[in-house]
Amino acid sequence: MISKLPKWAADLTEKASSIMTDMKVLETVYVSPNIKKIRFRGDLSRMNFQIGYASVIRVSDTEFRNYSVAYHNVYEGILDIIFHIHGNGVGSLYIDALKSEDELRISIPRGKKMYNGTIQRQFIFGDETSLGLACSILPILRKNKHQYQFYFELDDENHNVPELLGLENYTVFSKKNTFRNQQWISELPVFNTDEWDNANFILTGNVKSVQTFRKTLKERSRGNISSQGYWLEGKKGL
């Protein structure tokens, strides 16, 4: 979905029952000062949840933002989204202000599928904006008995967030431009063994980090690669 529309078009989009669903905030919790987990309740019967899909929330009169669903239960009509409250952007300000009993509309998930269940080894890379995807794929990886590894580049205050969210088999790296350096990436443990040659690589998060990681993988002919940049410094509404 386009991230910015004229107000009249945004009003029509939000009212479209074929796209948007009424939801209510059940509860909110700050996993860290800038990671907020919100549970919503509504009718999920029309929603198709796939790894890599995202739902849209209107965050101002004219702007929308995409968010990955971290957990869903269609029978109970609940879904969780993990938000990165970053800076004073319109999306962050809107999400930060949401509280229990607030009502809003959330779109049916759509996007690009990233999970390939036929591949035994699964490697997932991302940052704070990727935590929802990581939480959504973990039960699938466990159920299908994959070998899997998560790599996260996180701000220092978020280093313990993966543990608090119940993630496992993860390594946290400091966000010090390390994943903008191809040479540094090529020396990571995942490149020091042939076990991951045919893995399914899922790369999300910061555009520059995703592009650099993808380029390094492709130069080494590593596995099946799915990538989606979620944000880029200086660019709104990616």
Automatic annotation (TrEMBL):
Instruction: Supply the Pfam families for this chain.
Output: FAD_binding_6
Listed SUPFAM superfamilies = Riboflavin synthase domain-like
Ranges for domain FAD-binding FR-type: 18-116
Q: Which InterPro entries match?
A: Cbr1-like_FAD-bd_dom, FAD-bd_FR_type, Riboflavin_synthase-like_b-brl, SIP_fam
Give the Gene Ontology MF terms in alphabetical order.
oxidoreductase activity
Extract the PROSITE patterns matched here. FAD_FR
What protein does this entry describe? Flavin-dependent oxidoreductase
The organism is Chryseobacterium geocarposphaerae
The upper taxonomy is: Bacteria, Pseudomonadati, Bacteroidota, Flavobacteriia, Flavobacteriales
